[in-house]
Amino acid sequence: MVTQAYAQEAAAPAEEHVDGAVDATHADPAHADPTADTHATTEAHGGEHGSDIFPPFDPATFPSQLLWLAISFAALYLLMSKVALPRVGSILADRKAKIDADSAAADASRQKTDAAIAAYEAAPADAKSKAQGIAAQTSDAIKTELASKRRAVEADLSAKVATAEARIATTKAEAMTHVDEIAAETAQTVVTQLVGDIPSDSVKAAVAKASKE
Amino acid sequence: MAGTDPIHQFVIEDMIPIHVGGDGTAGSGLNLSFTNSSLFMVLTVLAITTFVLLASSRKQLVPSRLQLTGELAYEFVANMLRSSAGTEGMKFFPFVFSLFAFVLTANLFGMIPYFFTVTSHIIVTVALALLVMSVVVIYGFFRHGFKFLKLFVPSGVPAYVLPIVVPIEIISFLSRPISLSVRLFGNISAGHITLKVFAGFIVSPGAAGFLGWLGAILPLFMTVALTALEFLVAAVQAYVFAVLTSMYLNDAVHPSH
């Protein structure tokens, strides 16, 4: 109930205020009616009276509004076009130039980096191929040296073998000549033991004859 | 003040009376007084200029929040104009930016209590729309001469349809300033009236006592929602005005479409 009493108390001044406002703004008796609500005043402004026409449609205010609109809009246009917008535009242009320059520099740096990386990657491969070349050369040289040495040694050995074989052959031939003598001597000795002395010439002839058969 | 009267917010009051001509009696001659409307036009211009100048004062490479806001506004309008009218249309950039900023700031100023809404008066929106159309027509004839009239003759249309199409094109061209101005005026003034009426519904049921106050909760929420909607309308209407201006300027730059 306290709330309601408060509400009623509060309502009374509000109502007075509304009515007072109606009285103040509409001095003519037709609208001094204290029961007039906001709807009534709205209608009153709708255009029953010449002085109470809807303000936006009141031609008496047009010259002033046109004049001050022209002055203020012209001032705004001049301020914007001559002072304000070029400043903002220059900020944006500066930033765009800065960004473009920076990104160009970044691009150049990246290309440099790419080149450096390529060089860095090429260096070991280069060294590797060079090392392989050196190794191959060295091994070739060693191989040819070895081959020539071996050929020399082989030639030497085969020469030695050939002389040795020749010596063996002569020795063998020599030995073969001695075989006849030994056989003759042996045969003479055997014959002497069996039949007494015989001339050595006949023994030799007989041995030779026998060895031929 | 006028309490819950939804129309009172549009009343123009003389602040510095300036009367030209006439015989000295009330209503005669031209009333060029500095009014509350004039005050808010000037405040709008001052607010825009202060904002853009402050935003561009430090010229930082990495922008501060304020500078970024200014740059965003600049690029927003620039992209809008460039996409509609091409690079050639960019010579109208200060004009379109001024229009957009003026309408947007005037609309948003209107959302502040006790502030006068400049764009809620049809004479202001009509003047801006006629300014746009005169720029289009004058630049169109200046740049293209009578070829500007190709605007009314769409290319690729068979000749026997032209007697129908050309009048339609002319009527649509002539209706542009009307739609441009009435759209802005209607949205803003109707929105403000609606807002005020619903706000009035919060106060007036109080006469019915407790239940009345209870019933006032609904219009209270409605008013909160409408306030948000009106902020949206304020921004969208400024955007629409600027986009349409860009498209009309495109006709002046490239009349044969």
Overview of this protein structure:
By secondary structure, chain A is mainly alpha-helical. Chain A folds into 2 domains: 46 residues, no CATH class; 113 residues. Chain A is 84% helix and 0% strand. Chain A is built from 4 helices and no strands. The longest helix of chain A has 134 residues. Chain B has one domain. Chain B is built from 7 helices and 4 strands. Chain B has a two-stranded antiparallel sheet with strand order 1-4. In chain B, helix 1 crosses helix 2 and helix 5 packs antiparallel against helix 7. The longest helix of chain B is centred in the C-terminal third of the chain and has 42 residues. In chain B, 38% of the residues are buried. The interface between A and B is large, with 56 and 69 residues.
Question: Which key phrases capture this entry?
Answer:
heterodimer, A: 213 residues, mainly alpha, 2 domains, 4 helices, B: two-stranded antiparallel sheet, two-stranded antiparallel sheet
Give me the Rg of chain A, rounded: 72 Å
Number of domains of chain A: 2
Which regions of chain A are unreliable across 5 or more consecutive residues at pLDDT < 50? 1-50
Integer average pLDDT of chain B: 90
Shape of chain A: rod-shaped
SSE ordering of chain B: EEEEHHHHHHH
Distance between the termini of chain A: 173 Å
Which structural class do you get from the secondary structure elements of chain B? mainly alpha
Average of pLDDT of chain A: 78
Helix content of chain A: over 70%
Question: Based on the structure, what is the oligomeric state of the protein chains?
Answer: heterodimer
Q: Major sheet of chain B: size, sense and barrel closure?
A: 2 strands, antiparallel
Tell me briefly what this model is.
With 213 residues, chain A is an all-alpha fold. Helix content of chain A is 84%, strand content 0%.
Secondary structure blueprint with pairings:
The complex is a heterodimer of chains A (213) and B (257).
Chain A: H1 2-25, H2 38-45, H3 62-195, H4 200-212
Helix pairs in contact in A: 3-4
Chain B: E1 14-16, E2 19-20, E3 30-31, E4 34-35, H1 36-55, H2 65-85, H3 93-110, H4 122-144, H5 162-203, H6 210-215, H7 217-253
